[in-house]
Amino acid sequence: MLPFWIALQFLSSLPVRLPGMPTPEELGRSLLFYPLVGFLFGVILWVLNGLLAGAPLFLHAALLLTVWVLLSGALHLDGLADSADAWLGGFGDRERTLTIMKDPRSGPIAVVTLALVLLLKFTALLAVIEQQQAMALIIVPLLGRCALLGLFLTTPYVRPGGLGQALADHLPRSTGKWVLMVGAVVCVVLGGVPGIVAVVLSVPVFVWLRQMMLRRLGGTTGDTAGALLELLEVAVLVGLAFL
Fold first, then answer.
1. Distance separating alpha carbons of residues 230 and 69, to the nearest angstrom
2. Which of 58, 64, 110, 152 qualifies as a FRET site for 117, CA 20 to 30 Å off?
3. Is residue 25 domain-resident?
4. pTM score > 0.70 for this model?
5. Domain for residue 133, yes or no?
6. What is the number of domains present in the chain?
7. C-alpha angle 177/13/213, rounded to 5°?
């Protein structure tokens, strides 16, 4: 179970402590457990949603969103901010884009992007709560982390060395494909028609964002992986809010 604990430590702010430094092989296998971490996040949100039943609607949605962000320690939002700055400031140049991503400072485009994404997520949560689509709270985080696994399965990692390279090099690819299929089935079983819609919506969003990375960078980085997760989550949640 060590790869699961590695995935949970990396993707969450939960107090997980590993017994030592994981091997590259263990890091690669940890990617297989990313969807399980997403499922765990979803269950926490689903339980919280039940506990908040009867609370004022706006407060209900705000608390859900706050816990959603805190569970990941805003890790993926940071990647989204860095990617947004780099995409605008890179002017289409690969090396300039990669350099800007390494800058820890956030510019105006990053702030605007984060504000819009969080606003969309908040308003979509309002709709989901009103429509009593509680299963969306499990399905969306699960699909977001399935997307991370899918990205590393299909896309080169462009920064040599470091954690991302170990993940990409040692990911068991045939098992990863089965994990993705299981994740899709779980979404359909839990959500029924909304689950099918969520899976179908996630595919073109994933393909589009991946193509953007390939055109600009020739692959992915940790930051663009985080951006993909956040944008896919908000797109699927907004789509479900229209049902």
1. 10
2. 152
3. no
4. yes
5. yes
6. 1
7. 45
